[in-house]
Design brief:
Elements (H helix, E strand, L loop, with lengths): L1 H35 L4 H10 L2 H108 L2 H15 L6 H71 L27 E2 L6 E2 L1 H12 L3 H19 L8 H25 L6 H25 L3 H19 L6 H9 L1 H21 L7 E2 L2 H7 L16 E2 L5 H20 L8 H27 L3 H29 L3 H6 L7 H23 L18 H17 L5 H24 L8 H19 L7 H8 L3 H11 L9 H7 L5 H11 L4 H4 L11 H16 L1
Antiparallel strand pairs: 1-2, 3-4
Helix pairs in contact: 1-3, 3-4, 4-5, 4-6, 5-6, 5-8, 5-10, 6-7, 8-9, 8-10, 9-11, 10-11, 10-12, 12-14, 12-15, 14-15, 14-16, 15-16, 15-18, 16-18, 18-20, 19-21, 20-23, 21-22, 21-23, 25-27
Length: 804
């Protein structure tokens, strides 16, 4: 137990020592903090936090007691110094008094001397103040004077209409003088008037721009008409140049040894290419001058007013409205009368827009112009489609097409795409030609109905040139003597003029429409005109209006001339289409009026045959059983020959040789058929040898007639002409031959009797056979033995009966 208590005491002593050391540490820390001037707050909070503020108070009191001795020592030291200082001050007191008196004397002297100077200084300061105020006043007045000068200058510019300079003066006043203006009244005035001036300038410029918009519509119309007129003149010059070039080519082709002249095309700069340079104010370019000054001035003023983008939109909207109003087609005026104004207005509009695009400094963009052009093309195409669908006259459609094509030429020079317009024109190609064919059908019908079927009389050379040479209808290069009677009637030149006009109208429609090679199209419609219209009209004329041989002969003569005219038509079409004649001739087809030509010749032949039939009725007067051979031929044949000779002498004046040959051959064949038909018919019951010899005389007369046509026929053609009555000739030869039975021999028949029909031969042979001596008396003597010819004839008849 004792050892335990001893241990406890030791522990208590250790704890007490620890507490003392902690208190000393706190005391040192507080002393250090106070000496260093640090904040004692943490110590106070800590003490109150532990609930022992007495300890802090104890330490503070302890610190204060520890410093009292130090304070005392310091005070003692300072007190000795203070005593010494007082002593020093007392020793200086006499010096200070002397110094004071010296300073007082100096001050009195200074005051006496400085008083005038001070008054002078006050006067100087006052003068400087006044001078400064005067300078400020002068500066303010000068500033105001400059402002007023600018204001006066701005007023003068406004009065003279020089708005840009007025705005520059206003901008200068606002930027350079407004804030520095010393006069509040002047400043308020400027603040009120400057916006008013800008508003006034904007109104004036907008009014000028509005007047320009009204004026430019009239200018655009005149400009479009001028541009299209220039395009038309240029086209005419190109056509003339092409004609000269083709003539040179043809001359070169026809005679390689001749000189070939080169054609030099002069540059035509009157119209320009649509891109001539010009200034932004007055866009004059040769004949296409027009004033854009008001427009560019308005744009420039708006740019100065910082309203450039607004004006651009305003300009575009107004021009778009103008273009829309230009699209209005008047219902009170026929489109044929107003189409030139309509298209000229649009052409002028886009010529102006092209100039504005190139010289306007960004007033309108290329995209905006293209948008306007697309709108215009769409509308023009719609108008053309609508108007073309209503038109029933080819000439009206052609006039509008020509003007639209000139519009395309004019605007293509300015870079506008016109393919859509040309496509619309091409689309109505068929309708135009149908209308043209209809017009030509009426004209041809009227021309044919007015024909008197008389040869045309020409009294003057110009008539010959107009009716013959202009269509290359002449058969000789020698100009005839006048008055001249042409082999054709007035129908021929009248119809030629109609066809030539059709060709020229067709070429005019097809040319300048975007298609370069259009000869095939023109040729197709020319074939239709000739083959459908003219040919049908001639057929109708032949079938309804031709009532006599002279009329039929005149129509046949006309058809021969039409054949030469058709050659001219195709050459003329090729010439106008720019196709070399050799190529056109290579593509030629048959004569397109073949039906009417054949009908005319058939009608003439038919009428001649009827006339011949009237003479052939005299066959009834022939004694077919006579024993006497008629001297000089039978009566019918003499009448026929007289008529044929008269006919030939007349026809030679009108009909071409080849037509006359065909008609004569047809008539002679008809005579042969008529004689054979009579021999085979019921009119002839029996035939005597004398009658057959009489027919032989008749055929010899026909031979003589044919041979006498030598100026008209060559020997070969005369031999060919005789083949027309070869049937009756072979029949007579067979009946007069000593061995008629040879007819059944194929070789002999093919060589000598190839034109005979065995049935006709059988019929005529039956009539020719007679057992009496009177019939065959000339072939031998009477007797019991049969005549060899009769025997051969009987054998022939028997063989022919077996064949049939």
């Amino acid at each position: 137990m004792q050892s335990s208590k001893g241990r406890r005491k030791v522990g208590s002593t250790t704890a007490g020592a620890g507490i003392d050391s902690a208190e000393k540490l706190d005391e040192l820390l507080i002393s250090s903090a106070i000496c260093n001037g640090e904040d004692l707050g943490p110590f106070v909070r800590k003490t109150f936090g532990t609930g022992k503020p007495e300890t802090l108070l104890h330490h503070l009191k302890f610190f204060a007691r520890s410093k009292e001795s130090e304070i005392e020592e310091v005070c003692k030291a300072h007190y000795q110094d203070f005593i010494h200082a007082v002593d020093d001050l007392k020793s200086l007191l006499s010096d200070v008094e002397s110094l004071k008196s010296a300073l007082s004397d100096s001050n009195s002297k200074l005051q006496s001397v400085a008083a005038p100077l001070l008054s002078s200084l006050d006067s100087l300061v006052e003068a400087q103040t006044v001078s400064k105020n005067v300078d400020l006043a002068i500066g303010a007045v000068t500033h105001c004077v400059r402002v007023m000068e600018l204001v006066s200058r701005a007023n003068q510019h406004l009065q003279s209409g020089n708005f840009y300079m007025a705005l520059k003066c206003v901008d200068s006043i606002e930027s350079d003088f407004m804030e520095k203006t010393p006069s509040s009244t002047l400043k308020r005035m400027l603040e009120n008037r400057i916006p008013a001036i800008r508003s006034y300038v904007e109104r004036k410029v907008n009014k000028e721009f509005g007047d320009w918009l009204v004026e430019i519509r009239v200018v655009s119309r005149n400009l479009g008409q001028l541009a299209i007129g220039e395009a038309s003149a240029a086209r005419q010059r190109e056509e003339e140049l092409r004609i000269k070039q083709r003539q040179a080519e043809e001359q070169s082709r026809l005679s390689l040894r001749d000189c070939v002249y080169a054609l030099n095309e002069e540059e035509d700069d009157e119209f320009g290419s649509g891109h001539e340079g010009s200034d932004g104010g007055s866009s004059g370019g040769g004949l296409l001058g027009f004033d854009l000054t008001p427009l560019y001035r308005a744009f420039h003023i708006h740019q100065t007013l910082s309203l450039g983008d607004t004006f651009k939109q305003y300009y575009y909207n107004n021009r778009d409205l103008q273009l829309t109003s230009d699209f209005q087609v008047s219902t009170m005026t026929p489109f044929l009368e107003s189409h030139q104004t309509f298209f000229a207005q649009i052409a002028g509009f886009f010529i102006v827009e092209d100039r504005v695009l190139r010289t306007g400094g960004g007033l309108i963009s290329k995209l905006e112009v293209e948008t306007l052009w697309d709108t215009a093309v769409t509308k023009m195409c719609a108008v053309l489609e609508d108007q073309f669908s209503r038109m029933q006259t080819a000439n009206h459609l052609l006039l509008i097409k020509d003007y639209v094509s000139l519009l395309g030429v004019s605007l293509r020079r300015y870079g506008y795409a016109v393919d859509s317009l040309l496509e619309v024109l091409s689309k109505h190609r068929d309708k135009y030609h149908e209308l043209l064919l209809s017009d030509c059908r009426k004209q041809i019908t009227e021309a044919l109905s007015a024909d008197k079927f008389e040869q045309m009389l020409m009294k003057k050379e110009y008539e010959y040139s107009m009716n013959v040479l202009s269509f290359q209808l002449q058969t000789s290069e020698i100009v005839p003597a006048f008055p001249f009677i042409a082999p054709f009637s007035t129908t021929v030149p009248d119809c030629c003029r109609i066809v030539r006009s059709f060709i020229e109208d067709s070429v005019s429609f097809m040319s300048h429409g975007g298609q370069l090679d259009f000869y095939d199209v023109v040729k197709k419609y020319l074939d239709r005109l000739l083959g459908e219209v003219l040919d049908e009209a001639l057929l109708k004329l032949i079938s309804t209006s031709v009532h006599g041989v002279s009329q039929a002969m005149q129509v046949a003569a006309n058809m021969a001339v039409f054949e030469r005219a058709c050659d001219f038509f195709f050459r003329h079409a090729a010439h106008l289409s720019g196709v070399p004649l050799r190529m056109a001739e290579r593509g030629r087809r048959h004569f397109p009026l073949t039906k009417s030509q054949n009908a005319a010749e058939d009608t003439l032949s038919g009428m001649l045959k009827k006339k011949i039939d009237g003479f052939m009725t005299l066959l009834e007067n022939v004694n077919w059983t006579s024993d006497d051979i008629p001297q000089g031929g039978n009566e019918y044949m003499n009448e026929v020959l007289i008529y044929l000779e008269t006919l030939v002498s007349t026809a030679q004046q009108i009909l071409p040789a080849k037509v006359l040959k065909r008609v004569l051959r047809d008539v002679l064949a008809h005579i042969s058929e008529k004689i054979v038909g009579t021999l085979c018919g019921d009119l002839v019951k029996r035939l005597s040898m004398a009658a057959i010899k009489g027919l032989d005389v008749d055929i010899q007369l026909l031979d003589s007639f044919t041979e006498n046509l030598t100026p008209l026929l060559t020997d070969k053609e005369a031999r060919e002409m005789k083949k027309a009555f070869i049937e009756i000739r072979q029949m007579i030869n067979l009946l007069l031959s000593s061995h008629p039975e040879n007819f059944v021999n194929p070789v002999i028949r093919e060589r000598s009797y190839n034109a005979l029909d065995y049935r006709k031969v059988a019929t005529v042979s039956e009539k020719f056979r007679d057992p009496s001596d009177s019939i065959f008396g000339t072939f031998g003597t009477r007797g019991s033995r049969q005549n060899p010819k009769n025997k051969s004839l009987d054998a022939l008849i028997k063989r022919l009966k077996d064949v049939s």
